[in-house]
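Example A, followed by Example B.
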Amino acid sequence: MKKIIFLSVWLIPVLAGAQTDSVVYKASSKVVKSAKNPIEKKETYSITITVTHIRNHDGVIRFKFFDDTTPFPHKMGFRKVVVPKSEVTGDSLVVTYEGFPSRNMGIALLDDENSNWKLDIGWFLPKEGHAFSDYYHTALRKPVYKDFRFLLTGNKKVIMKMKYY
């Protein structure tokens, strides 16, 4: 029990500190050593995200990456990236992130127009925009992870169309 508490106290700040990144996330292929194969490389892939229909240049775009171990709406996801909207050209943004191993994953984003780190809600609906990987949410329910999940098996291009109410 003491080991679990120690690991939690040590690991949570490390993971939380590693959550916010610059515009481009880069990671090289990892070298994993095992008894059977002393040098084994794990192949990684890139994801190019095109965000369309951004309504203004105020605030920031907040991406959250989810996988099967941290599915949406997990508070942290497995990775967070913040992009200033000064990077937006017209009403679109194109970014590429590298270093992802093959796995099921999904991407959600928040157009945080006032940079307050949360989705602002009006009477019943969000005041700020949101989008999901290759999925345009039209239902009056919260989206679920399986709606926008994909299996990453190679370099991938993702389209994320902004939704505003």
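Example B, a separate protein, is given below in the same form.
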Amino acid sequence: MKLYQFDPAPASRRVDIFLKEADVSIATEQLNVRDGDQFKEPFNSLNPFHCVPFLELSDGTVISETLAICRYLEESNQGKINLFGSTPKDRASIEMWNRRLEIDGYIPLMAGIRNKFERFDGKVLAGTRNDLKRSDIIVKRGEDSARILFERLDKYLDKYLFVAGKEFSVADITLFSTLELANNIGLNLDEYVNILDLKTRLSERDAFKK
């Protein structure tokens, strides 16, 4: 297997944290997506979505998307720690929170960042080069969506140690990456005391240290 990454990319960072938490060792190649490596061969043929990360298996199968990669590595027994849940209830709860964090936070904030900053001109959609224009409306919608999510999650964390309950899971990795995006777009998170407490605790874990 070989994992194709670009360390500065948020999605790549999520996989990197997972690998460290699950104690998975895998051959990795860095692609400089800023310079367009992903559009060159053989990477263009390997992954037509032109995004990192993506995982090439020994039989030629290519898996892209962060959670799909992490789930494959866990379910194929590559890792020593279970981060997707070990019971039907745990797996469902982790999946629920992970989806909610992505739908209401990670994805809207990523879209907001790509629409806010000039460096994404021509790259508003990840994995593309086109003339789509940046939009302030998308920036505001991303920020508003994230605030609603954080308000709900902060109240929930009054009762729970981690996002999906008592145990650390892949959903906490998604939250941490979402909070990094919120910081990058300039959101003030000071009012979300429980979320910031969890972020501090996550930051202290070796896997989260850059």
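On Example B: The longest helix spans residues 88-116.
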